[in-house]
Amino acid sequence: MSTDRVNVDLGVDARRALVDRLTAAGVLGAGWGAAFEAVPRHLFLPPVNWEFVEGRAVVRDRAADPQAWLAGAYRDTPAITQWDDGDQAGGQRDFTSSLSMPTMVALMLRDLDVEQGQRVREVGTGPGFNAALLAHRLGADHVVSVEIDKAVADLARANLAAAGLGGVRVLVGDGADAAMGWGGRADRLIATCSSLVTDVPVAWLDQTAPGGLIVAPTATLFGGGAIPRLQCADGGRSASGRFTGSSDFMRMRQQRYLAPPVDAYLPGDWPGDARQSTTDPGPGGHRRLLARPVRPRHPPAGPLLPARALRADGDVVVLRHRGHLLGDGRLRARRRRVRRAPERAATPVGRDPRRLERLAAGRATRLRAVRADRDRRRRAHGVARRPGPPLEPTCTLTSRTPRPGDPSRGGAGGGGRAARL
To answer: Basic residues composition bias: which ranges (predicted)?
Structure first.
């Protein structure tokens, strides 16, 4: 029996097992089980790929070990399919295209909440597995995918054809370009690459119909990614929603951080041209530092607020850091610890139940005072108390481009665009 025949036969059982695992984990949305069972994931892996296992890239070579290659295709792990934008001499420094782990694919498709007859625009085709699942669910003529790398797009077309879904349109271009895709707007937009949380492509608002959904990973400059699920409103001029979970996707190529080489700012061996110095506080110096009184820049009025105080700003929830209050409170607590250490040693807390009760009662009293002060501040600023978890994050994406005949946006034409989450 040929290797291809063995792969096909084993792939059927592997796909069923993958669907069972995703279902048991509770990440598979309604209607997606049939797609995951029908679309062979191993068809979207090159003969040589690198399975990402516990932070390491493990090479999977189909010619050398076909069973390990096939088993890796149906594990809940991502697989690297391209290094260094396809530069064979790059030395495998950065992975630039991959097949996402099935759990992440299932979660994002569940957030997308597609319905039969809707059109979906995908940004970042990659090997094409995500587009294949969408095409199986909605039909190939209802899916268009945009990939910036021509070599990756060509591979995705071949993979889709091998899976019997060659009708999916795979375009080569910038996924943030409003001209890429259908003549009209899509009902859903999903991105499989992350954008900076401060630079989400606002062109996606023009590409998505009012009431449509955008599911696109975002991240800060140095990591910390999350996936917002945004619903378009205001005639396609804004979108808002909530973060549904964390993520770790490759950055859009237009937004990659190009750091200067280390030699540019640290010449020679460590520490370069910097000067090292050591400060000796002397005997007991650390105690003097802990007990040194520090006055906050703005003395607090009333009870100390926690380090993170909730402030609502429209549809955006902001976590504000009260640094001066945190520093003052910590220093005062440390001063008490230094002064009362002998007393605690003589009477351990664990042997004095009454003291435990007093500590618990005092903490509850302080917590009630903090909450009462927080509610008072909210009422003073006209902010209603939100239901659910107090720190549940939300996000907005707004287009600030003046529209023709819209005096509230500066008249006809002109203006720039900005995006903010």
So the answer is: 285-298
